[in-house]
Amino acid sequence: MAGRRLAFRALRGWAADDHAAAFAAYRVSAGSLPPEWPRPDGTAPRAFFESRFIPVRIGSGPALVTGYYEPEVAGALERDDVFRHPLHAPPPGLSAGGGSSRAEIVAGDLLAGLELVWLDSAVEAFLAQVQGSVRVRLRDGTIRRFGFAGKNGHPYRSIGAELIRRGEVPAAAMSAGAIRDWCARHPEAAPDLLNHNPSYVFFRPIDLPVDKGPLGAMGFPLTPGRSVAVDPAHVPLGAPAWLETGAMRVLAIAQDTGGAITGPGRADLFCGTGRDAGEAAGTMRLSGRLVALLPAAIAGRVAP
Q1: SS3 letters across 214-260
Q2: Residue 299 in contact with residue 291, Cβ under 8 Å?
Q3: Where does residue 176 fall: left (phi above 0), alpha (psi -120 to 50 degrees), or beta otherwise?
Q4: pLDDT digits (tens, 9 = 90+) for 92-143
Q5: Other CB atoms closer than 10 Å to residue 173's CB: what's the count?
Q6: pTM for the full model?
Q7: Domains assigned to the chain
């Protein structure tokens, strides 16, 4: 991790942001951070960030800011003619070293007996894996929540990027909705498209109040519009992160990671729950800069 120090006055839009909203998100995970990280006290939010942190630009090139969300979909706890696409618990002995690919898992039904819940669409099951969390609405109206519990060790490959490469969907029109539409129009080709991504994500049941966001990589609920997934090799988890693009200037907190979020110039903003959040996330692809707010001790090491 390396970066360049900036002054707060160099952050375009800084004064206009809702620092109290960012401060509330920071409080959620601050208690778990090492001692050199500031703990919230009675200081006003903007003054807290400006007096306890040093802005450090991460990476030398443009940052790419995308969005993700928590899907809410219909499902059932038992398989039937409608709900027949499962989300799985991790297999025993799962390690980070790798396992069967998505295509092998699906073709061989290799996870039989590990089904947690059944969805009515293979595409929705796939998208839940990409997002890493999901709310499942059962027929009686109750909600079951599931969160990330591991993956098979294969690299993530974007099926959206694959559709763009094939000329099937224009880059400007790519979204989760565009993927759904393409798969609905090409049901015979949809399984092969999904298998383009060999990565397979496993889930576990999560007991959270319905008004809380899903759990991020730090183990705390995410805040819509104020939690961001980063590559922790470049931005420490728990750090405030200033996202500055032509369409967005917001202070978020690095509380999550993602299989596709790698490198110094990547950030993935959590947009919330449900279809509207999914549409907002699916069309978010913004270029700008990523600035981490770091305590003086850490800033001194990465940006002397």
Answers
A1: CECCCCCECCCCCEEECCCCCCCCCCEEEEEECCCEEEEEEEECCCC
A2: no
A3: alpha
A4: 876 555 589 999 999 999 999 999 999 999 999 999 999 999 999 999 999 9
A5: 12
A6: 0.86
A7: 3-68+217-302 (2.40.40.10), 70-206 (2.40.240.50)
